[in-house]
Amino acid sequence: MRKLAILGFGTVGSGTVESFYHHKEKIAKRIGFTPDIKYILDIRDFPESPYKDKVIHDFSVIENDPEIAVAAEVMGGLNPALDFTKRLLSKGISVVTSNKELVARHGAELLALAKANNCSYLFEASTGGAIPIIRTLTDSLSSNYIYKIQGILNGTTNFILTKMREEGLPFNEALKLAQDLGYAEKDPTADISGADSARKISILASIAFGKHIKPEWVKTVGIDRVTSEDMAYAESLGAKIKLVAVASKESDSDKIFITVAPYIVCNNHQLAHVDDVFNAVMVDASGAGRLMFYGQGAGKLPTASAVLADITAALTETNSSDNVWEECEEDIIIKTDGEEGLPILE
Ligand code: NDP
Ligand code: HSE
Fold first, then answer.
1. CA 163 to centroid of ligand 2, rounded, Å
2. Domain count of the chain?
3. Which of 11, 101, 102, 156 for mutating ligand 2's site (highest number of atoms within 8 Å of CB)?
4. Whose alpha carbon is nearest atom 4 of ligand 2?
5. Cα separation of 314 and 326, whole Å?
6. What would the mean pLDDT of 69-91 be, rounded to a whole number?
7. pLDDT (average), residues 59-84
8. Measured at the alpha carbon of residue 95, what is the angle toward residues 279 and 220, in degrees to the nearest 5?
9. 219 and 156 housed in the same domain
10. Residue 223 CB burial class (10 angstroms; 0-12, 13-18, ≥19)
11. What amino acid positions are annotated as catalytic residues?
12. What is d(CA 29, CA 27) in angstroms, rounded to the nearest whole number?
């Protein structure tokens, strides 16, 4: 039972397969045996690919093969990704994923299912692209109280805002470029509207605060509301406009503040210098103090790096799902009134 299956052979899936074969010997050294990819599940055939013989179309082949130890779900969307993930975890097959939509919506249930079946559900690639923020919050900072997380969590919108500001590119041209580079979601409305950032901050908040914060509870404003006048105004203040996600909770309060919005970020703030497809996450923790994590937030190889880290972990750990999110009600969220104009990031 040492074989892998990759579900979805798109941007992230193809990057994962290529990187796996590039680093196979290094992975083998780390885990003590040589793993291999047995199947690649996709709707299409890939006759030009060197991996064409591994491509299958029937999911049941994977779930019924006792050799499969880990599957990487990199198809995206809720269906059939949820059904496939549940069926795999129920059989004790670990699942790693880049699918933030699924993690944000069903994370608590899937983590519990993995634990019950003594396997892992890991999602380093779901938030921050190549940045190892999930394992950092789950493991490295586990003995800290997390007060606040603020970050630029969407590569596409940060890329678009940077291209518009620095190269004067019209919005649609900048978006097209982000799509061509493989950064954008299949439906880029999720990027532009802030929904993708809302999914990611809800994942980070769920880990930090131990409660499953649903993405639909996050007060979300996208960059579609940003005008060229707003950008000129920010510039006149010595600032930039950035789509920022924020989650915070005081240690003596049960309530969580969580939002995604285009913020005015003054140039003396570290997040002001996070441009292009880069993401950054700033964490305020009780013992460690302020920490900042920076890296490419989207794209084939940066995302594959995070998927492969999880594959390696899942192959070595019997059950790495110590990450438990309690279910909770929406009244845990602090309700705020709509603000006039763009907020300034503190
Ligand atoms: P792509 O659309 O490039 O790849 C998805 C692949 O899965 C496609 O080949 C698609 O086929 C295939 N697929 C879809 N449904 C099924 C199905 N039912 N059975 C088999 N195959 C299926 O997406 P990405 O690789 O960009 O993204 C994948 C996931 O990773 C998404 O959740 C995304 O949000 C996330 N992600 C993406 C990043 C990026 O930079 N691109 C970064 C971090 C996370 P077809 O094309 O025919 O529909
Ligand atoms: N569309 C996402 C982004 C992909 O641009 O950040 C990475 O999650």
1. 16
2. 2
3. 156
4. 298
5. 23
6. 98
7. 98
8. 40
9. yes
10. buried
11. 200
12. 5
Q: What is the pLDDT of residues 153-185, one digit of tens each?
A: 999 999 999 999 999 999 999 999 999 999 999
Q: Could you list the residue range(s) of the whole structural domain that residue 86 is in?
A: 3-130+300-316
114 CA from centroid of ligand 1 (Å) = 23
Residue 216 and residue 105 in one domain: no
Residue 153: CATH number of its domain? 3.30.360.10
CA pair distance 24, 39, nearest whole angstrom:
16
Segment 250-287, tens digit of pLDDT:
888 899 999 999 999 999 999 999 999 999 999 999 99
Please state the pTM of the whole predicted model. 0.97
In a domain, 165, yes or no: yes
CA distance 38 to 216: 37
Helices (H), the chain: 11-22, 24-31, 59-63, 81-90, 100-116, 133-135, 155-167, 171-180, 189-192, 195-209, 228-236, 300-316
257 and 271 housed in the same domain: yes
- Token readout for 45 is 């055939």
